[in-house]
TrEMBL record:
One of its GO terms (molecular function) is histidinol-phosphatase activity. This is Inositol-1-monophosphatase. Pathway: Amino-acid biosynthesis; L-histidine biosynthesis; L-histidine from 5-phospho-alpha-D-ribose 1-diphosphate: step 8/9. Mg(2+) binds at E81, D99, I101, D102, D226. The lineage of its organism: Bacteria, Bacillati, Actinomycetota, Actinomycetes, Pseudonocardiales. Keywords: Hydrolase, Magnesium, Metal-binding. InterPro entries: IMPase (IPR033942), Inositol_monoP_metal-BS (IPR020583), Inositol_monophosphatase-like (IPR000760), Inositol_monophosphatase_CS (IPR020550). It holds the Pfam family Inositol_P. The keyword Hydrolase applies.
Amino acid sequence: MAGVGVDEAMLNDLKNTAEQVAVEAAHLVRTAWVRMQSGGEVAVDTKSGETDVVTAVDRESEELVRARLKRIRPGEPVLGEEGGGAGNDAAGGVTWVVDPIDGTVNFLYGLPTFAVSIAAQVDGVSVAGAVVEPVSGRRWTAVRGGGSWLDGTRLSVSAADRLELALVGMGFAYGQDRRVRQGKLTADLIGRVRDIRRRGAASLDLCAVAAGWLDGYFEHGLHRWDWAAGALVAQEAGATVLLPGEAADLGEDATFAASPGIAAELRAALSAGGAAEV
C-alpha cells in the first residue's frame, strides 16, 4: 500500500486526520448554511471577477482547518484556496491542500451541493484525503494504493463501456469568454453521450465518478485544491484520471476522470471537439 515513500500506517493516519478536520470544518459550514436558510446573512466578497465569490464562511472554515492541522500535524505546510501558502513543497514532506468550501456559489444560493476538501500530498502527489459534505454528512475518503470509501463502504467506478450511454459531468470557468468556448465544447459532446450534468463542485463530481454516479467528468481551469482529494478518491475507485499538465490533447489545465471502459473514447471525443483550444 505504500505510495510516494509513505508507509501504510502513515497513510491511514493522514487519511484519518483529513477526515477528522474536514468533519469539524463541515460542521461550521453547515451551521452557517442553516442560519442562512432562516434569513441570516453572510459577508460576501469577490476574487477574479463578480461571478467568482468568497464568503466569510469560506475564510472561517479555512482558518479552522489551519488551526487544527497546526495542532495535530505541527510544522507541515498548508496550501489553501483562501489563505494561499506552500508555494514550494518540501521534498518528501507532507503538504496539506485545502478547499474550505468547494461549491461556494451553491452554498450562497442555498443549494446543498458543496463540500470541504482536504488532501495530504507528498511531492505534489495526493496520498490521502477526505471530502465531506456539510448538508448530507457524507464522507468520501481515500488513501493511495489502499482504495476509497463513502461512509466506510468501498467504492468502485461504473462498468460503462459505451460512450453514447455515458453520463458525464462538466464544469465551467468564471470568465465569460472561456465559458462560451466551454459551452461550444459541451454542445459538441452532448450528442455523443447519454447526458451531461453540471453540479458546481469539482470535488463532488470526482467523487461521483468514484461511486459510479457519473461515468466521466471533465473540466478546465481547476486549481490544486479543487482536485487534490477528489481525484484521489476517483483514482482509488478505479477511474482513469488525468490531472492538469498530463493531457496536452485536452488542454494544459484539464482535469479528466472516467470509468476505464469509456475513458479512451471520451478523451478522443473531447479532443476532437477542440478541448485543447478551450
